[in-house]
Write a structure and sequence with these properties.
- This protein is an all-alpha fold and 351 residues long.
- The protein contains 13 helices and two strands, in the order H-H-H-H-H-H-E-H-H-H-H-H-H-E-H.
- Helix 12 runs antiparallel to helix 13.
- The chain starts with 5 loop residues before the first helix and ends with a helix.
- 46% of the residues are buried.
- Mean pLDDT is 77; it is low at 165-176 and 335-351.
Length: 351
Amino acid sequence: MRVSSPLWDALVFAAMVMAECASIGLITLSKAAMSRGMSNFIFIMYSYALATLILLPFACFFHRPTLRPITFSLLCKMFLLGLIGYLVQVFAYTGINYSSPTLSAAMSNLTPAFTFILAVLFRMEKLHWKSSSSQAKSIGTIVSISGAFVVTLYKGPPIMMDPSSSNSLNRLHLSSQSNWVIGGIFFAADCLLSAIWYTFQAAIVKEYPEELTLTCLYSFFGTFHSAIGSLIAERDQSAWILKPDLALITIVYSAILGFGFSVGTITWALHQKGPLYVAMFRPLGIVIAVVMGVLFLGDTFYLGSMVGSITITAGFYAVIWGKSQEEKLDKGIGVTSLESSTERAPLLQGN
């Protein structure tokens, strides 16, 4: 059951902003770790496994009194969701390995468009062309995508760069530009699968509203899929050995803040607000990614990034406004219906 109040909406908003910050921080950290030789397949597997071990006791403790029966149908759905989520991770980190976190955040703005289409097709979102709220959501989605293209295709003069960045980081940034197109293709596939994941997860959590249990099951099946993928893709035995270095820090960060906090928060927000609301937080990631890229990876902040970020933010707030107007309208209809039924009650009793 979705709750709607100004304080509750602010809580969901703040949680999603923190989840997006954690996700972009993970992308930036994983880029630095992969540049030092970390295997993205092994990284994904260990992250899933550690997240499962961390989430299992919490799920048992918090949901044990009210835990609903886990049916075979639910396990099959979570198995498929885990496979989709694993492919999302593979495409995302492969794209990061070829390009940069800034391009990842820019291309992720395709996710709201894909999610909006899927949500409308599966009737999770209302679309009335004569309604101002539907027009705001549609136009906001298009504006956000346009901003993403501005960031990707137009750089312009540099505005901000890190003068203390080392030559190795600068060479890394320049060399990644040669694989920009390959990285973009992987990110486009990641965005499409992410939209499918959001829509599918929203349907599952509506059927089984135990967010922590679902997140634990998702991590478990993600571990299963990633273990098979790692055995096939990674033949170097030394890549499986964990050492106290940046790779281990990245795995722990990914398990706690990536799969644990971010996925759990997204699952909860999907239950509260639906897939489109969650997907529309992806555009904010580009602002975070640009700042982190300049500070930690030696990236340069260009004029195109600033213009695109402003455009993306405008589209984002247009969609949020459309969603809030729909919720107010639905709440008003509910109140009107309740008042009407209350007024009719005495008449029925009199009869």
